[in-house]
Amino acid sequence: MRAADWIPACAASETVADYRPVEYRVKLATEAWELREARALRRAVFCAEQRLFNFTDADDVDDDKAAITLVAVSCIHSMSEDVVGTVRVHALGNDVWQGSRLAVRRDYRGQAWLGSELIHLAVSLAHARGAQRFVAQVQQQNVALFERLHWRALEAIELRGRPHWRMEADLAHYPPCGSVERGFITTLRSAA
Question: Residue 130: which domain range?
Fold first, then answer.
């Protein structure tokens, strides 16, 4: 049960409108609603907002049963409420894994650490499953974030008319993590 399913309706007020959860669970998407909201978030970011795709960003990777969806879920009193971030990971072969479709809901992007936590769990999961390399195609505006997270740029590329970089994670900074079903709790951090 999600918190949104049991919270009583209340009159809109500045306090309610300004409310921001302070607790988030970063985990494997295990519930149907988590997968549904992760797909909706990807459509909102990559189709509606960035206009990289027309109607859907789904591709062959999504059809592959080996693709893994991770989510960042806001929590109220430790109960899941909304998917506010997502990323997918999959094996490419030869012990190489790839992350893709990293998306954080627009109103949660000021908390850049949600994306960082998703990246951390994605790489650590792949590392636990035998990855010797972890790569991604990163949009130009996100390269600095990935570099702070111990990634290195391999080459500049263009995807769907936008500048990207092929990047690779330094696995030494991502210890293997096999327990992704429950994931981990992270709390709201103030901007430094």
Answer: 21-187
